[in-house]
Write a structure and sequence with these properties.
mainly beta; four-stranded antiparallel β-sheet; globular
């Protein structure tokens, strides 16, 4: 029978089996403490690559590690450097990402996405970074803020957001679900392919409208998103530690 194998990927004690020309760029950090909230994992089918997203505890930045089985080599490297873990820091702006954020990840055709909470002086924002398949380890990553004080999406509230964003892609859109900490409600940011615009929605909790199973009680923490019959669905915490489940249809009709 096979046995589990273990390795230190990043941080103190991590190995660096790369040629000197790549040291400092693709090598893991040997001084930074890393690994908080290792909750973002996705497998991109187009380039056969495994991705991990987590927090660099020393710098407060978003950290990305990837391992490609597809034979992609991003800096002209050769065996054995081709099939090894590689590392980079993302969203290196002045404000750190939250220590308590879960990193929501999703794949859409040709792209990979990560969502996270960006700390602010008194309130937090929802961050999003993305890139095309095979463009890791460089300047190809885009960064934007969807909701919260830094938010630029349509109907962004400026409310503080927190917790555990959950993201999912369907054939028509990309959706991230998250908690509005100011109002204690569940919110979503949705990007419909072809519309080229993020739109914020209020889904469940006090002050939300539309019926369809909504509650007036505090909700929205600990979101987990999934694709059900090509529709964006989410499980999240309700009042009294109850479990709630909702589905956001392609017509933007919410049912919980």
């Amino acid at each position: 029978a096979g046995a589990w194998r273990y390795e230190i990927l990043d941080g103190p004690g991590a190995a660096c089996p790369r040629k000197p020309a790549e040291i400092g760029y693709f090598c893991p950090s040997t001084t930074s403490n890393v690994g908080d909230e290792v909750s973002g994992f996705v497998w991109t089918t187009g380039d056969q690559t495994a991705h991990l997203f987590y927090r660099n505890n020393t710098t407060g930045t978003l950290r990305h590690a990837w391992f490609s089985l597809g034979g992609y080599c991003y800096t002209g490297c050769a065996e054995p450097y081709l099939f090894s873990w590689r590392f980079e820091d993302l969203d290196t702006g002045l404000a750190p990402i939250s220590k308590s954020t879960k990193i929501g990840v999703a794949e859409t055709p040709g792209q990979i996405h990560a969502f996270y909470i960006k700390d602010g002086a008194s309130s937090n924002s929802l961050g999003h970074t993305w890139t095309n398949w095979g463009t890791y380890g460089g300047a190809g990553w885009g960064v934007e803020y969807l909701d919260g004080p830094l938010g630029r999406a349509l109907y962004a509230s400026g409310d503080s957001v927190d917790g555990e964003p959950g993201a999912v892609g369907t054939s028509t859109d990309l959706t991230v679900f998250y908690h509005d900490a100011t109002r204690d409600i569940l919110r979503s940011a949705r990007y419909k392919f072809g519309a080229n615009q993020w739109v914020i929605g209020e889904l469940d909790g006090y002050g939300t409208s539309g019926g369809f199973g909504r509650t007036e009680l505090p909700v929205g923490r600990f979101t987990t998103a999934l694709n059900i019959n090509d529709r964006a669905a989410v499980a999240y915490l309700g009042a009294g530690n109850s479990l709630r489940i909702g589905i956001l249809g392609k017509d933007d009709v919410w049912t919980s």
